[in-house]
Specification:
The complex is a heterodimer of chains A (about 220) and B (about 300). With about 220 residues, chain A is α/β, with parallel strands linked by helices. Chain A folds into two domains: about 1-120, Rossmann fold (3-Layer(aba) Sandwich), CATH 3.40.50; about 135-195, no CATH class. Chain A is about 30% helix and about 20% strand. Chain A is built from nine helices and nine strands. Chain A has helices at about 10-15, 30-35, 40-55, 75, 80-85, 95-105, 150, 180-190, 195, and strands at about 1-5, 20-25, 60-65, 90, 110, 115-125, 125-130, 170, 170-175. In chain A, a hairpin with a 2-residue loop joins β6 (about 115-125) and β7 (about 125-130). By secondary structure, chain B is α/β, with parallel strands linked by helices. Chain B has an eight-stranded parallel β-barrel with strand order 1-2-3-4-5-6-7-8, surrounded by six helices. Chain B has a single domain, classed as Alpha-Beta Barrel (TIM Barrel). Helix content of chain B is about 40%, strand content about 15%. Chain B is built from eleven helices and eight strands. In chain B, α9 packs across α10. The chains are: A alpha/beta (about 220), B alpha/beta (about 300). Bound molecules: iron/sulfur cluster (SF4). Iron/sulfur cluster (SF4) binds near residues 152, 161 and 179 of chain A. Iron/sulfur cluster binds near residues 161 and 164 of chain A.
Chain lengths: ~220, ~300
């Protein structure tokens, strides 16, 4: 899922301090799962902001509401009757949610309260690790299920660079070299042939905004010329 | 002849090649490039011109290579994948060829995190093997990576780097095989200190028939001091310095360490001359260009063959 991390409180303060009534909108989707922007985090952040504004003598009132998901127009309707009472919205959703919120309520400023960081997995409670960059051309089939785009610091497709160091990446002795991991896994599965072939340059799919239509819906949304 | 560079002629004629290195300046100090070029003249067959080495901004490698060419050296134009996408790479390759450059070395490049712009966006649009292949297709098929015809294709003698020491060891020779299959005409290795591993690697390369398809130049960097040796051992990723080398340097007087370093390098070069599958030596005398004539002399690689 998408993983996000709350922005520093000071940055949020600077964005909203000229507004008098702020509605913080949480999201019950991914950001709730990774504990960055769900119901609980809305309450915590509002409490912290209230405290900060009080100490700094900035006049401002905070309210909170959490919708099921901010990446869907229907759920965004749930705040329609409230929005009019506020000067700005503070969205705790991922970048997609913030944008959809701004699109739905174009007359009111919407500020992001979190940084959307990556698509990743849960390592421990509250600890997440990046695994995917949504490049749109999945190569995991020949790399033993280890993503070279995300996990190799140079995004190489044809094996380790010269900097690989005792199984670690040249950028840090803490980070495993993705290509050593790929090699070990394929070797264990007797599939090294997969990486002996030269992989041709990636045809990058993520250079313009993408839209997908799932197969069963193709007809329904077919463009009429 | 694929490109007709001086290096290609020397290798094809069966001479043992001897190449050097020259780092472009961190600024527009052209005089400095010219000064560094002087001691290399007539001492080496080709000079590698590094490309934003260690991810620090320097004069473009193609520009410094042209200056080296004016000084009578034959440049090896280095290009890394870190800073350019496939459009910029191909454009520079065309331009470099038109200005008389004939050798190119295709590299991944050190990660930007090491340099003085650590948060720059790394490009890595294609990797070093794909770059080798692209330059080869430009030369042999006369086609851009996108498939269109090139109006007068650039004909480069294509080089690649190899590191016989990175783990997993058994993968190393396969990575070499991939570079050869992609189109590497010559290989320059990482600095070698661990001769046992090097012998093993070159044997594997011979057994796989790779040394018949490409020319391997063994990388040699003389140690200037014990401090340098320790630094290389502990701090530089991908370099393997055995204790033997450290002990030899530690065993001589501090003032004699540089001399001992050169002695070790010369012994290595002597062995490489006799090693089946090694076609030459690439001397990386980092910030020690003025010592190159002495090293060349002591390694008995002079005079350099003159090709026409
Ligand atoms: S050391 Fe491994 S993970 Fe790091 S850049 Fe090189 S190949 Fe990629």
């Amino acid at each position: 899922m998408v993983k996000a991390k709350r922005k520093p409180l000071e940055e949020i303060r600077d964005a909203i301090k000229s507004y008098k009534r702020v509605l913080t909108v949480g999201c019950g989707g991914c950001v709730s799962v990774c504990m960055a922007g769900g119901l609980k985090e809305v309450n915590t952040m509002n409490a912290e902001l209230k405290q900060m504004f009080k100490e700094e003598n900035i006049e401002c009132s905070f309210d909170g509401f959490t919708v099921e998901r901010q990446c869907n127009m229907e759920f965004l309707e749930d705040v329609a009757d409230k929005v009019g009472k506020f000067d700005c919205l503070l969205s705790m959703a991922c970048g997609a949610g913030v944008q959809y919120m701004s699109e739905r309520y174009p007359d009111i400023p919407v500020f992001p309260a979190v940084n959307t960081v990556f698509i990743g997995v849960d390592k421990e409670i509250g600890v997440y690790e990046e695994k995917c960059r949504a490049c749109g051309e999945c190569v995991l089939g020949y790399t033993g299920g280890v993503c070279p785009v995300t996990r190799c610091a140079k995004g190489l497709f044809n094996g380790p660079c010269g900097g690989t160091n005792k199984g670690k990446c040249e950028v840090s002795s803490e980070v495993p070299c993705a290509w050593v991991t790929i090699y070990d896994r394929l070797k264990a599965q007797n599939r090294l042939d997969d990486i002996l072939k030269i992989q041709q340059p990636m045809q990058w799919q993520n250079q313009v905004q993408r839209t997908i239509i799932q197969e069963p819906y193709k007809e329904r949304y077919a463009k009429q010329d | 002849m694929k490109a007709g560079s001086n290096l290609e002629k020397i290798l094809r004629a069966g001479h043992f090649a001897f190449t050097g290195e020259l780092g472009p300046p961190r600024g527009c100090n052209v005089e400095h490039v010219r000064e560094k070029a002087v001691p290399l003249k007539g001492m080496v067959d080709m000079v590698n011109i590094t490309d934003n080495q260690t991810a620090m901004v320097r004069m473009s490698s193609w520009a410094a290579a042209i200056i080296a060419l004016e000084e009578g050296l034959e440049p090896n134009y280095q290009m890394v994948c870190r800073d350019r996408n496939r459009l910029a790479m191909q454009a520079d390759i065309l331009g470099a060829y038109c200005h008389g450059l004939r050798n190119i070395l295709c590299l991944s490049g050190d990660h930007q995190q090491f340099g003085d712009h650590p948060n720059a966006k790394g490009v890595y649009d294609i990797d070093s093997i794909q770059l080798i292949n692209m330059v080869k297709n430009m030369r042999d098929e006369g086609k851009f990576a996108g498939g269109a015809e090139i109006d007068v294709p650039p004909k480069f003698f294509i080089g690649a780097a190899a590191n016989p020491f990175g783990e997993p060891y058994e993968w190393r020779v396969h990575r070499l095989a991939k570079k050869v299959a992609a189109g590497a005409d010559f290989i320059q290795t990482q600095c070698i200190y661990n001769m046992d591993l090097m012998r093993e690697w070159i044997k594997q390369a011979n057994d796989m028939g790779l040394t018949e398809k490409t020319y391997i130049l063994a990388g040699v960097t003389p140690m200037k001091s014990l401090g340098m040796a320790k630094y290389m051992k502990n701090r530089v990723p991908g370099i393997d310095v055995p204790d033997e080398v450290i002990n030899r340097l530690a065993g001589v007087d501090k003032k004699k360490q540089a001399d001992e370093g050169i002695k070790i390098a010369c012994e290595q070069i002597e062995e490489f001359k006799e090693t089946k599958g090694i076609a030459g030596v690439h001397l990386m005398a980092i910030e020690w260009e003025h010592k190159v004539p002495e090293i060349a002399e002591r390694a008995k690689v002079l005079p350099r063959p003159v090709m026409d």
